[in-house]
Design a protein that fits this description.
Helices cover 63% and strands 11% of the residues. By secondary structure, the protein is an alpha+beta fold. The protein starts with a strand and ends in a 5-residue tail after the last strand.
């Protein structure tokens, strides 16, 4: 069972997931394809570094939003069930019954407060999986996985595909209110009858029904949004300097590359990404030679927000979790 409460990533971990990675070593006399791959990976890393603090802040905000959904009474009820299991191990039947009565009362309070609630959040944690690779490398891995699948080698394909992700995952662990309280109530008669082994097994079974709901935030899409925010601030400036013009062009290039990574990893439909690239082209045209103004980024920001929400909804299905030993 997951630890009751919620955990925020330490700052060092957030900065790591934000994209602080070592630059690849320089290879003497590298071939043209190798140089190209190194250049594109460096471009991705530079884009990651540009928004690393903003990504860390986004991770912290996502965790905080998850923490705000946690229901205190459900957390303590779960702790009471854990306590009852420990007490049964020690042969303390009366104390175990008292702990289960406490848990039942707290869950009844949760249900009475909101009868429509089906899942009661008890814990939140954020994990990150980042991928630093060129688009070509990702495409090659996808093709390799497809070949494995066409040859019926599903497990080999699974190993390849497992690495093709770059995302923050906010996981909320929940008590299923439709079944959990009744399962806890059913344990008390077993204890009264002296069937301690059966009571413990029933508690373990109940705890195995905790439900995790994941919300996935694709890191390349998030980084593209953050890079475009920085670019927008420059695009609105009148009389930009040459250095600022160059910075604006670099930010737009890095945002485009992050979207190419997102496309290669399958965080959206290919047809959608053609629209994103076209919108960036339009912004580049409008800001060329010192052009400035407002509203240039409205369409692409709205599109990327919708893309993020689509990925979150697609990943929000619950999955049953099993208790710790």
């Amino acid at each position: 069972m997951k630890e009751a409460g919620s955990r925020l990533l330490p700052l060092a971990a957030m900065l790591a997931l934000a994209g602080i990675v070592a630059q690849p070593p320089v290879v003497a006399a590298a071939s043209a394809p190798v140089k190209s791959a190194m250049k594109t990976v460096a471009n991705q890393q530079n884009g990651n570094a540009t928004v690393k603090h903003s990504v860390a802040a986004a991770a912290s905000k996502a965790a905080e939003q998850g923490r705000s959904t946690v229901i205190k009474e459900a957390v303590t009820a779960l702790a009471d069930v854990d306590k009852a299991l420990i007490l049964l191990d020690k042969g303390k039947k009366k104390e175990a019954l008292d702990a289960l009565a406490e848990a039942t009362g707290k869950l009844e309070l949760v249900v009475a407060r909101d009868p429509s609630l089906t899942l009661a959040p008890v814990a939140v944690h954020v994990t990150a999986k980042d991928l630093i690779a060129s688009v070509d490398t990702i495409d090659e891995a996808v093709e390799r996985a497809r070949k494995y699948l066409s040859d019926g080698e599903v497990q080999k394909a699974r190993v390849v595909l497992a690495n093709l992700a770059s995302e923050l995952v906010v996981t909320v662990t929940n008590i299923p209110l439709g079944t959990f309280p009744a399962a806890i109530k059913a344990v008390s008669p077993l204890i009264d009858q002296g069937k301690i082994g059966e009571a413990k097994a029933a508690l373990v079974t109940a705890l195995s029904t905790l439900v995790d709901v994941d919300t996935v935030i694709p890191l390349p899409v998030l980084r593209a949004e953050l890079l475009l925010e920085k670019a927008e601030a420059l695009a609105e400036k009148r009389d930009r300097s040459d250095a600022q013009d160059e910075s604006l062009a670099i930010l737009l290039s890095q945002a485009r590359y992050q979207l190419k990574i997102a496309k290669a990893l399958g965080y959206g439909k290919k047809s959608d990404f053609r629209d994103y690239y076209r919108m960036i082209d339009e912004i580049q045209e409008k800001t060329h030679n010192g052009g400035f103004g407002t509203g240039f980024f409205d369409k692409i920001k709205a599109k990327l927000k919708a893309l993020t929400e689509t990925n979150a909804k697609a990943s929000g299905s619950p999955s049953v979790q099993h208790p710790k030993k």
